[in-house]
Amino acid sequence: MKSIADINAIREQMRSKVLIRDNTKEGETHVFVGMGTLGLEAGAVEVFNAFVDEITSREIKNVRISRSGALGAADKQPYVEVVLPGKAPVAYGNLTADTVKVIVDKHVLGGEPVTDYIVK
Amino acid sequence: MYRSHILVCGGTGCHSNNSANILKAFNEELKKANLAADVQTVQTGCFGLCAVGPVVIIYPEGAFYSCVKVEDVPEIVSEHLVKGRLVERLLYKEKATGKTVKALSDTNFYKKQTRVVLRNCGVINPENIDEYIAMDGYQALIKVLTSMQPQEVIDVVLASGLRGRGGAGFPTGRKWQFTKDAVGDVKYVACNADEGDPGAFMDRSVLEGDPHAVIEAMAIAAYAIGAQQGYVYVRAEYPIAVRRLQIAIDQAKEYGLLGKNILGTGFDFDLEIRLGAGAFVCGEETALMTSIEGNRGEPRVRPPFPAHKGLFGKPTVLNNVETYANIAQIILKGADWFKSMGTEKSRGTKVFALGGKIVNTGLVEIPMGTTLREVIEDIGGGVPNGKKFKAAQTGGPSGGCIPAEHFDIPIDYDNLISIGSMMGSGGMIVMDEDNCMVDIAKFFLTFTVDESCGKCTPCRIGNKRLLEYLDKITSGNATMQDLEDMEKLCYYIKENSLCGLGQTAPNPVLSTLRYFRDEYIAHIRDKKCPAGVCKSLLQYKIVKDSCIGCGACQRQCPANAISRTDYIAPGKKLAAMEIDPNKCVKCGACMSTCKFKAIIKE
Fold this sequence. Notes:
The complex is a heterodimer.
Chain A: H1 4-18, E1 29-34, H2 37-42, H3 44-57, E2 63-68, E3 80-83, E4 90-92, H4 97-109
Parallel strand pairs in A: 1-2
Antiparallel strand pairs in A: 1-3, 3-4
Chain B: E1 4-9, H1 12-16, H2 19-32, E2 39-44, E3 56-59, E4 63-65, H3 73-82, H4 108-111, H5 129-134, H6 139-147, H7 150-160, H8 172-181, E5 188-193, H9 202-209, H10 211-225, E6 229-235, H11 239-254, E7 270-276, H12 285-292, E8 316-320, H13 321-333, H14 335-339, E9 349-356, E10 362-367, H15 372-379, E11 389-394, E12 400-403, H16 413-418, E13 427-432, H17 437-451, H18 457-474, H19 480-496, H20 500-504, H21 507-524, E14 540-542, H22 552-556, E15 562-564, E16 577-579, H23 589-593, E17 599-601
Parallel strand pairs in B: 1-2, 5-6, 5-8, 6-7, 9-13
Antiparallel strand pairs in B: 1-3, 3-4, 9-10, 11-12, 11-13, 14-17, 15-16
Helix pairs in contact in B: 6-10, 6-13, 7-8, 7-10, 9-10, 9-11, 10-13, 17-18, 17-21, 18-19, 19-21
């Protein structure tokens, strides 16, 4: 038998796990992670995982992360595009799991592209 | 930590299309691809879009795959999950526009819906209580038990304007108030899940997709009226719903959300399932309670109403599944939130099961006040094969039809009654120009005659006589006097039957008479069925000048009714065929065989 505190603890713990099933997002930001062969080799899965972890663990709403086929030039992998609602896509290259946090903080949440990682 | 979720629909529709094996195949393929630790597979309840099932949704993309087969699973895993490429050929295509859409919320089918009752259907695993808790599940029960007096709970439900979703639309809060105020030491709560209307599957889908919502609401109702025992009366013909509900009850008991001293608050409430034995009349409240008591499911006279003398003679609250599924949300979000949806006298949303001649067969939830046009054209995708919409039947065998002239009527309890139909539990059967309205009335009446329990004479004998009138009309033997007598009989049955089944049984006849009287008259006076359905009034004929004399129809005819004439049509080489109307059994086999459109029915 559980107490009210137990039920609330389950809720806190489970909430981030079902967050990515939210299908009612409005005016959402899209993040596309290129998963071409070169991207996969350069660590696209880690970058994708890092994005999902950031978004779900911090319960950030209105962001949809999508895997995508090959994106960007061979020497810019892993390659990601971030599209804020009503804005042109911004392309990032040579990302790592660590740089993802910066992009989520500054660009996805703050609205300011992170020039250090932008590729043309 | 799972970064992707694969949701496979486990509702009855997709389940019968092999979705359980699709889930199994995903688990095997994920293991092979070494992704089992990254990707979670979830069996959910109904997504609603049954027409394109089995349905699979993959998150975080929200990619919506339709008509998935077991053979498609390896491709989805290797392409989508490994290489990031959507399997385009399986993505749900918006049939109306031909455009490929990705997210569920982007499709026309979902755009106009408001999901309150169905909010967790197709989102959570109904067999996992933790996922329900993650979606604020049982928070309403906690709120009620820790911070509200029973009367406050009833006040919120009253203020919300929630009306019973089983069909009649009685205000739920008032029902609860009557039961609370009734004198008695023991009281009960009961749930009517004996959904029996042809073409209705709303309650089934709620139980299959979100059973905890019903359990939580029943516990809240029990607290409000002072009951300690509840029963869910569910059809035995709903095996998946029964199984998931039982799992949910067991999990809730294990967590201390049912049973003695719930969550340490001192409140006791236990819940049991009772299986319906397959009689439609047991959906009527007094018959249902008689059946729970272990007796033959026959209705009795009201009053006394269940709120005063219900189960085992004790005050009882009896609500339908969908009504309960609204309760927790109303408690959490407040009466004003609920009142903000719908119309003045019909608040909130209503779930409909769309069926019949419609593209998107499935389950939809709309705010009250949505027009029939929006439901059928925008959400339902319209009538298939370029046919014309003729009418929609709501309320099942107790309801009536809504003709095209009322296409723009906002759907709510009172509007539907004003045009001779009713909300009912939410079945909506769409009919096109190929449906004969007399035949439709006959279909529903045959159902009620079968299901009449026989206790009262107007229903047992009256409906039988009514059906005989309809038989007479569809076989071309009726007179205009019969039509008049039949109409009188309808009102007699309505006024004198004992329970709702008999009182509403003539409704399909009355409403088709109201809007399609000309079709009845065509059957009687002209001995014709305008839609070409009623076999006795049909004749298959061969247009001799179109017939090339190939003899294909003759080979197909099971009754040897087709023979060769000696007439050779101009420009044809062989003599034309003809049908002997005395031998013809009107099966239509010749007509579907003929490649030259030389056979017509009239």
